[in-house]
Amino acid sequence: MSTEYPVVAILLMFFGLPLIVLSLPLAWIWSRHKQRMLEIRLKNEGGANASFQQIKALRVEVEALAFRLNALEHRGVGESDLPNEITSGE
Q1: Residue range of the domain that includes 46
Q2: CB neighbour list of residue 69: distance below 8 Å, 6 or more residues apart
Q3: What's the rounded Cα separation, in Å, for the pair 27 and 21?
Q4: pLDDT tens per residue across span 14-45
Q5: How many domains does the chain fold into?
């Protein structure tokens, strides 16, 4: 029974220690890979988010123009009295 402990110690020394030492660079490589993939994903979503913000800004602008046109119509201003930028859409 006393001979089992040196065998276990030798096995740990020749197999366990190298596995622990080699696992550190592998863990670093894996975490760096995950970080890069997250950066790429966020970069791609950021481009989509910018397009979404542009569409949202255009929607707000159209709503403001529609509100302005509606207010002018209620005041009795005819379409011929409106500036060209409102009637032509430019």
Answers
A1: 4-88
A2: 82, 86
A3: 10
A4: 888 788 888 889 999 999 999 999 999 888 87
A5: 1
